[in-house]
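Figure 6 in text form: structure in, sequence out.
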């Protein structure tokens, strides 16, 4: 059981009769389940694709179960890639949920590019003081793609 299992998605609120409209605020085409909102919605998918692409990886995850299997087998140690992926995917989930709430309760919205830039800012800010071995080609490429400054 993770925190995400308890999120009050529209489908869950509908189940307890708090709301009638269960559609996703991003695409308005599918029901807003956790799986849809954070993974399968085109909005989420584009963000995941961008995060993976900027890290030189290909996004192939289609379910939370897949995601946790993948994360627990690859997120080991303290490599720059692992740190970036952890920060970026935490930020992705945070900003998607924040964006969903802003659209529902405040009526304002940001597009995918703006959300991705917000994720990028978090990654860059969190890694600003990290000592990075830039002789490592993989690290230097990650710094370039994520705009992490050289120090
Ligand atoms: Zn959607």
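Output sequence:
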């Amino acid at each position: 059981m993770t925190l995400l299992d308890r999120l009050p998605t529209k489908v869950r609120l509908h189940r307890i009769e708090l709301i009638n409209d269960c559609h996703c605020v991003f695409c308005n085409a599918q029901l807003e389940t956790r799986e849809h909102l954070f993974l399968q919605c085109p909005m989420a998918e584009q963000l995941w694709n961008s995060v993976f692409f900027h890290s030189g990886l290909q996004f192939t995850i289609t379910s939370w179960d897949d995601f946790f299997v993948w994360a627990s087998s690859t997120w080991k140690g303290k490599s720059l890639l692992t740190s970036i992926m952890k920060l970026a995917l935490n930020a992705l989930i945070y900003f998607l949920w924040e964006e969903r709430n802003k659209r529902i309760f405040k009526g304002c919205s940001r597009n995918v590019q703006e959300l991705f830039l917000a994720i990028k800012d978090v990654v860059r800010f969190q890694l600003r003081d990290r000592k990075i071995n830039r002789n490592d080609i993989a690290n230097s490429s990650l710094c370039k793609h994520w705009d992490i400054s050289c120090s």
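Caption detail: The pocket of zinc ion is lined by residues 24, 26-27, 30, 36, 41 (CB under 6 Å).
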